[in-house]
Amino acid sequence: MSAGRGTRGKAIGIAVAAAVGGFLFGFDSSVINGAVDSLTDQFTLGSFMSGFVVSIALLGCAAGAWFAGRLADRFGRRAVMVVGAVLFVLSSVGTATAFNVPSLLVWRVVGGLGIGVASVIAPAYISEIAPAKGRGALGSLQQLAITIGQLVVLSSNAVLSHWAGGPSRDLWWGIEAWRWMFLVGVVPAVIYGVLALLIPESPRYLVSRGRLDQAAEVLGRVSGETDPRAKVAEIQQTISAEHRPSFADIRGNRFGLHPLVWVGIIMAALQQLIGINAIFYYSTTLWHSVGFSTGDSFITSVITAGINVVMTVVAMLFVDRVGRRRLLTIGSIGMFVGLLMAAIAFSQQHGTGANVSLPGSWGPVALVGANVFVVFFALSWGPILWIMLAEMFPNRMRGYALAIGTASNWIFNFIVTFSFEPMTEHVGLSWLYGAFAFFAVVALVFTRTKVPETTGQELEAMTGEVHQRQAHA
Questions:
Q1: How far apart are CA 223 and CA 470, in angstroms?
Q2: Which residue has the higher pLDDT, 407 or 421?
Q3: Is residue 362 within 8 Å of residue 110, measured between CB atoms?
């Protein structure tokens, strides 16, 4: 019993270390929240350019996600984690010292590359070292780390803004508070790089490189395999039976790609089309625009991020018991209700653009609706997408399919984020939240008809054909 607990503790500890990449993912993707108004004033940005500055990092994310899997297969998971940490450090320092719009854009893209790398490597690594029975909970650590990163950076932004008397005011050594918001990111980035050097390499990568003794040692010590040599032989057999991974592995008869790859792409797109990052990137600005003071807007954003963390923990407790598809179904319904509340509330708005206000009790209704949405997102589509992308594909296509699914997520993140601010001015928040609610319904239908159940299955047992039958069960 104690040995099992010890092994489980090691697996959890190593998964937590890997998930620090998710922390940086959440930290770097949300640090712009408290700085966007200051950046707009500092560099005299219009609504188009302001949205572009916020969203351009997401193009770097898509590129980082696309190349991360192949780099990890060639150089190892740990080496690519270190690269991600270096990119985070460079981006934090570069963005904080940006002196014009071009330099700001360059460093935002560099940060995006780091986020993209972390978004692929952390869930892939965790799925490869975790035992099948606990893989859902450990895989959820990635999303939990993302939500904690968002909570920490929003709290940090609020504190720095409060100390300076506003994000655009000088804080220490004549440096504005918004620049310190980015500089704080150096600390977790360095920690991530150090931890990446301390954790063991993925056993599946070690087997692919012929380092069988090391793979067996990691499987026995971390994954709790009772017969690690037999597991190594099983992994070796699946690898030797397959050819060198290539783009051809994800091809199929349906629009050029394997049907299961399309499931991953559409799931990744839907996670963004329901609008979660529109809330987290613009929440401070959004609540300020509907009547909250600057300080209250920061606090409201922190509360929303805290709810996100708590509900992600709840998802971790149930994902291996309840199952992936059932939680996705429950989450889709709850998100629709929350988004519909927000859409109805904003239909009563006065003014447009930055001069929006909600009369009477409609402000609290919008706030409750937004947080109901966050609750059910964190319970379902937040963590489960990353679990599914890391585990549902057969070995022969996992690397490329994970990369293309994650890249799809970042591309649609860019589309939603880039369009949110100008669309707020042109069509209004009610229509935007209504559109997000529509995609929550699409997510519900898609889950019930196309998404496979992967709970409790070994990675070596994943086959596209089996999953396609399960999706209709």
A1: 27
A2: 407
A3: no
Give 170-193 pLDDT, tens digit per residue.
888 888 888 898 899 899 899 989
CA dist 343 and 346 (Å) reads 5
Q: 263 burial class (0-12, 13-18, 19+ CB within 10 angstroms)?
A: buried
Task: Measure the CA–CA gap between 426 and 419, rounded to whole angstroms.
Answer: 10
Residue 218 maps to a domain: no
254 forms bridges with which residues in the sheet? 257
pTM value? 0.72
Instruction: Give the pLDDT confidence score for residue 472 in this predicted structure.
Output: 43
Convert the pLDDT of each residue in 10-48 to its tens digit. Answer: 767 777 787 788 888 788 777 876 677 777 777 877 767
Q: Bridge-partner residues for 350, per DSSP?
A: 357
Asked if residue 119 lies in contact with residue 66, where contact means CB atoms within 8 angstroms, the answer is: no
> 3-state secondary structure string, 88-153?
HHHHHHHHHCCCCHHHHHHHHHHHHHHHHHHHHHHHHHHHHHCCHHHHHHHHHHHHHHHHHHHHHH
Separation CA 143–CA 140 (nearest Å): 5
Q: Measured between alpha carbons, how far is 85 from 263 in angstroms, rounded to an integer?
A: 30
Q: Tell me the C-alpha distance between 88 and 80, whole Å.
A: 12
Range of the domain at 410: 2-199+242-470
pLDDT in tens, 212-247: 888 888 887 776 677 888 888 877 776 666 555 555
* 3-state secondary structure at position 447: helix
- Tell me: the pLDDT tens digits for 99-113? 888 888 899 899 889
User: Bridge partners of 176?
Assistant: 170
Q: Are 291 and 303 in contact (CB under 8 A)?
A: no
Residue 436 lies in a domain: yes
Q: Closest Cα partner for 325 from 465, 441, 455, 143?
A: 455
The 10s digit of each residue's pLDDT in 272-330 is 999 887 766 556 556 665 566 666 666 777 777 788 788 888 887 887 788 888 999 99
Rounded to the nearest 5 percent, the helix, strand and coil shares of the chain are 80, 0, 20
Enumerate residues 6+ apart whose C-beta is below 8 A from 163: 171, 177
- What one-character DSSP code corresponds to residue 171? E
In the chain, the number of structural domains is 1
| CATH number of the domain where residue 304 is located | 1.20.1250.20
Q: Is residue 219 assigned to a domain? A: no
Going by C-alpha positions, the residue among 351, 350, 353, 348 that lies closest to residue 425 is: 353
In a domain, 132, yes or no: yes
Give the pLDDT score at 2.
38
